[in-house]
């Protein structure tokens, strides 16, 4: 069985839309594209480089795929893995691409079959609706979140539309010099409750 790992840059209020630049995803008249730029530092850069060097396949939503399809083949020197790994793209409308190692899937059942197959772990970047579908159906094994010290109040959010109650265990954490919390979480069963004693 393969792990599904969600990697996301999010604000304190959970917004994940267009972290990289104003033209990345302006849907919904989103006006804060590029909100991560002021927070870059050497600590965060090293974490990103480590993530980009991991062997993985990728599960992407249609919109993220369309943003990446023309960009990453031209920037293989920065992230060779994204071109070499298999890209599984969830879409009912897009069926073909010139980007090598791209496979199109259409349903939740296709994702479940993929998860239960043999191969590299599967990373999910961006793809807010797809991530929400995975969380709703308990298909996320790990979350790797870069949590930025700002709120935006609008935009596509990581946790929205019915994520199931689920417990996670913190597996690693780093705080950058600009206040970004980089944290890894592993799925840890059901939510436990209790009473706090004074």
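-> sequence recovered:
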């Amino acid at each position: 069985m393969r792990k599904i790992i969600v990697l996301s840059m999010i604000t304190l209020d959970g917004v994940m839309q267009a972290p990289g630049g104003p033209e990345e995803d302006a849907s919904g008249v989103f006006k804060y594209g590029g909100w991560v730029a002021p927070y870059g530092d050497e600590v965060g850069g090293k974490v990103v480089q480590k993530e980009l060097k991991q062997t993985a396949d990728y599960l992407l939503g249609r919109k993220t795929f369309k943003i990446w399809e023309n960009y990453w083949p031209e920037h293989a020197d920065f992230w060779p893995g994204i071109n070499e790994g298999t890209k599984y793209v969830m879409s009912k409308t897009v069926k073909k691409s010139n980007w090598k190692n791209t496979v199109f899937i259409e349903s939740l059942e296709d994702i479940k079959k993929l998860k239960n197959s043999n191969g590299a772990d599967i990373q999910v970047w961006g793809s807010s609706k797809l991530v929400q579908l995975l969380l709703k159906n308990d298909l996320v094994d790990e979350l790797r979140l870069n949590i930025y010290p700002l709120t935006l109040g609008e935009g596509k959010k990581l946790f929205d539309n019915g994520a199931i109650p689920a417990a996670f265990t913190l597996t690693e954490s780093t705080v950058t010099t600009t206040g970004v919390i980089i944290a890894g979480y592993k799925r840890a069963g059901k939510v436990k409750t209790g009473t706090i004693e004074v």
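The beta strands are 4-11, 57-61, 87-90, 102-105, 122-125, 142-148, 168-175, 181-187.
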